[in-house]
Amino acid sequence: MSLGEPLVELQAAPAGLDVEIRSVALLDPEDPPIAHPGELVLAIGARGRAAFPALRVAGRDGAAAVAVKLDTPGQAAALSETAVEAGVALLSVRGEARWDQVDAIARAALEDAPPGRAGEGMEEGDLFSLAQTTAILTGGIVSIEDTANRVLAYSRSADHDEVDDLRRLSILGWQGPEPYLAHLREWGVFQRLRTSDDVITIESHAELGIRRRLAVAIRSGDRQLGTIWVQEGSTPLTERSDQALLGAARVAALHLVRRRRELSADLTLTRTLTAGLLEGSTGPQPLASHLALDAFRPAAVLGFSYGAAEATGPELTRAEVTNLISVHTAARHRAALVTEADHRIYVLLPQLPRSIDIGTLRGWGQDIADAARRHLGLSLRGSVGCIVPGLGEVPESRREADRILDAMVHVDVSTTVAALPDIQAEVLVSEMLALITARPDMRDPRLTAVVAHDARHQGQLAESILAYLNAFGDVRAAAAQLHVHPNTLRYRIRRAEQLTGLDLSRPDQRLLAMLQLRLPPDA
């Protein structure tokens, strides 16, 4: 398996370079050190001496390697010594790199790796091996990107001085830097890649820190799937680089088509299992086994719904908002899962840190709602379900998220994203209203008569009673809210009592009126 520069650097390899890595694990700083045979352990947040326990446990349990970030170059010697004593390889990760990026690239390299020992051959779909082979055939430094300019795989380079700023920034940022992408658009490179199968040459630009490059589109029929880039190093590219690059693009196309099919099938299964868990029709184990999740770590559910007018919007809008939610939640929690059900979008957050709180999740939800308003012009309502101890209790968190969203529809709530403690009273009132709606026999017929009178005569008696009660009987305050004279309001209250026999001096009748008059007129 190869991560290569500029992401990681090998600091110690006491068992040599042929140790097989079979899986990748994230070690949360709050969890006790644990490892399994053949794992690459990403020690998040453990710097300097804080990484010693992870190294010792990894060596004891047979892990293949541990990756850490170094605060200072001087830490490498002490950590390397401990790694050698423990018998486990040590990798140092560049400080600018994101842990989720290292994790994703490591897993992608593992998924692409052919069975058996490294070096025994390359299967057709191995992107990292394909990048390395293309680098050998062209004499250059290779990266393979998708159509969004995200790096999918890249070749190793023994000489760091050969790597220009663009390649270094692209891999560290997992995407081409925007200023350079703007130059490529200006030079017409992307347009040519979209419309041509030819190898394109981009000359060096020393003022931009960019060396000469070749690029070719990865294509399936008329559809572009990605691009292969070859950067010239300290020596010129080989004479037949163009021919090698065309062949590599065709092999890469086979891989990406296959991967898309596999990802589509895998995504369908993941969504089915996620929806089943949220509904309570499927237990936690199928999803946990499918995605290698810890079913006994904290979890929670976020819920989102559109405004009433937007719920019937075009399919494109629904896809856009789902994608927006997916991107924002994935940026904050790598294991986040997004699915749709009953015109709502749910985010399942498994394997949450044990220290996380509702306030943090509310902040994530608010960021999503703000982004939807800013970028899509949509008004999202969001809810935060309770944090539960494991996947088995996820339906409880989903039910709480739904209770909150239901309340946001039926009662006046000032916030766009809420947890139950924020609007406990509003949720309970909403549920009482739902009960009264479903049970007409629980309604006071005198209040029903007031609403019916208003409907026949286009009156405002019901509205006036409710405003009066909401103002604790303060006639002037209620009249100001209704924009009428206080005497007009007094007349309406008397008129309602005379017509129906109501007696609003009685507390029980006032309480029932405050609830029943909140029902929509057609309830």
Automatic annotation (TrEMBL):
Any one Pfam family match given in the protein's UniProt record, by short name: GGDEF_2
Domain PucR C-terminal helix-turn-helix, residue spans: 461-519
Transmembrane segments: none
Domain of life: Bacteria
InterPro entries in the record: CdaR-like_regulators (IPR051448), CdaR_GGDEF (IPR041522), PucR_C-HTH_dom (IPR025736), PucR_C-HTH_sf (IPR042070)
Domain CdaR GGDEF-like: 288-406
Family statement drawn from the similarity comment of this UniProt entry: Belongs to the CdaR family.
Name of this chain's protein: PucR family transcriptional regulator
